[in-house]
Amino acid sequence: MPFARIELEQRERDTLASYAQLSARTRGRVHPEPPPEWRTHYQRDRDRVIHSRAFRRLEYKTQVFLNGTGDHLRTRLTHTIEVAAIARNLARPLRLNEDLAEAIALAHDLGHSPFGHNGEKALDRLMRRHGGFEHNRQSLRVVEELEQKYPSFPGLNLTWETREGLAKHQTSYDHPDQRAPFAASSCSLEAQVANLADEIAYYSHDLDDGLEAGLLAEAKLRREVYVWRAAAAAVQVQWGALPDESRRFFIIRCLIDAQVRDVVTTTARRIAAATVRSAEAVRRQPRALAQYSPQRARRNLELRDYLYTHVYYSRRVHGPNSRAVAMLRDLFGFYLAHPEVLGEQSRKRLAREGLHRAVCDYLAGMTDRYAIQEHQRWLGAEARARPDLR
Question: Which of 78, 108, 156, 354 is at 20 to 30 A from 199, Cα to Cα?
Fold first, then answer.
């Protein structure tokens, strides 16, 4: 074993808590490989995710606002980067394995459809009689099968622990696929903090993007949203009057800090009460140990409901996204009728996966702009005049 990895693994044993997931104790990969020379197993996972095609495509996938509608609005990629940063910030004070938490966070949306959660719902309806569609399950498909980079195996061949985190990814918006071999009651604490990092990221950036788009107003947020009012008051006390952009930035930062502090404090208390001494003991717990405090959880539900009313269901968001989703439905029907125009990898999977799943995989992998281009290519006015497509 190269000295560099010995040193890294010893550093984990010296610095991480007994309940953290050590890279030296990984359950391994589906396809055996020589261990990395200069990285831990989870650092290798992280790097494979970053270098995947699915990760690069996140730049052009909708988070909330249709991709391309604003230069400063989040995309699925910038959201993912924020989640990874927060996951590390949660893992560090709890003495968890930051590399594993980061790898899970970076991979958690690889399977997300174009056009945000509306696109996901549309694919799920279209696939209702063929196994459905759920983006956490699709993220697993991406890392286990759909990425085609390596000569010795399909997918990215990530460790069991990273794949476990994807299988059990769950936020207030998500419904994970609990499937074998990931059927334990809970999952690693690293996976749990990645889940909460996802929530913290979208609570904060959806507020920020809603303000940027003019759908939210600070004055109303102060009156109607407790967490905003509390963060704004803290910023006022510390900094006094600030310019608009700086004030908003510091309020968002204060809100994130308060969420992180609450999760770390609550989780540390729950870990101590559960007296867990190993990562496997964490997995045997009936409920996740990483949690918000009850009061913070209630306040976050209030914030979520407010965002649904004023952002997600607003005409500015819902209208364009609904029109985009109609393109997905059109393309789904078109590809079912014309599977010969699917991408090469999707055509290769037709016999094994079936027509509907192959079409679904192809659509789920598209960026927003590619889906729009494909709709124009095959279903636009010029395409409708082509006799071979009638």
Answer: 156
CB atoms closer than 10 angstroms to residue 157: 22
Given a contact cutoff of 8 angstroms between Cβ atoms, the answer to whether 304 and 202 are in contact is no
Report how far residue 123's alpha carbon sits from residue 286's, in angstroms, rounded to the nearest whole number: 32
Q: From 180, 176, 143, select the one nearest 45 (Cα to Cα).
A: 143
For residue 281, give the nearest of 295, 267, 271, 269 by alpha carbon: 271
The C-alpha atoms of residue 183 and residue 160 are separated, in whole angstroms, by 12
Kindly give the parts of the chain with pLDDT less than 70: 1-3, 66-71, 169-185, 381-390
| 32 and 104 co-located in one domain | yes
Give yes or no for a contact between 20 and 279, defined as CB atoms under 8 angstroms apart: yes
Task: Please tell me whether residues 41 and 170 are part of one structural domain.
Answer: yes
253 forms beta bridges with none
For the chain, how many helices (H) and strands (E)?
A: 20, 0
* DSSP of 84-144: HHHHHHHHTTTT--HHHHHHHHHHTTTTPPTTHHHHHHHHHHHTGGGT---HHHHHHHIII
Q: Are residues 215 and 128 part of one domain?
A: yes
Cβ neighbour number for residue 233 with a 10 Å cutoff? 13
Q: Is 269 helix (H, G, I), strand (E, B) or coil?
A: helix
Q: Which residues pair with 75 in a beta bridge?
A: 62
Residue 320 has a pLDDT of: 76
Q: Where are the beta strands (DSSP E) in the chain?
A: none
Last-in-domain residue among 317, 347, 369:
317
Q: Of 186, 142, 134, whose CA–CA distance to 165 is shortest?
A: 186
Per the structure, the complete domain to which residue 341 belongs is given by 318-389
Which of 120, 209, 173 has the alpha carbon at shortest distance from 300? Answer: 173
CA distance 127 to 357: 8
CA 232, 235, 237: angle at the middle one, nearest 5? 110
